[in-house]
Amino acid sequence: FTVFSADIQTAVIGNGEVSFVADQSKVTRSFDYFTVNYNAIPDDVASAYDISGMTKGETEPTLKEIKAYIASKDPELAASYVKANLDQAKALMADDFTKAAETYGNGLVTVTSAANNVGNSTMITNALENVDPQGVLASVYKTTEGLAKELYTAEEGHITEPVATSDGGYVVAKVKSVEADSSWSGLVASLYPYYAGQVVFNDYATEVLSSDKFDNKFNEKFMQLLLGSTASTAN
Fold this sequence. Notes:
By secondary structure, this protein is of the alpha+beta class. It is built from 11 helices and 4 strands.
């Protein structure tokens, strides 16, 4: 195994491989998006809500914390306000996406020059998951069927349907720009030869250790060796 790992990590990386990976970072797009979640609960509703069941901290809870508590305690109530805001946002966003985001959502978020990292490579430094400032769009674009393809093939100005998020809300994205940005490719090309071997080895190790076929007897063998060593020392 030691020889195998050394061979992988010291393998010569060809120019073609470097260029291929660097080119992936050039296929970029920019997006605007906004979320609608439990923050849609009106302030007066949150202020009047019974928070006696909340865990008491050192300071008084903020309205945002109270709204999050309501969402966990009474998800149907929170969902009704989320739906109302989302419906109003959908009616407005085709004409004024920014106003819809600021009026009925949590404000506009812009993701600039994001690459579609379909291979989950750690070398694509400008991958969407790395350049999304709030991480909401990045958290759903690969796990939602067809969304990655939609975002990276649709025309400029295209608006997605609302996509459910983990906090009971929704995210809506708009393709802001389809222009490619090659400014990251130089960095990727310079880093890749140094880290490629390590990345491949780590990926391989992860696949092996997570495989159903891998029979992990480390603890068993470790205890046998430890107890054997202890017994030898005692004698």
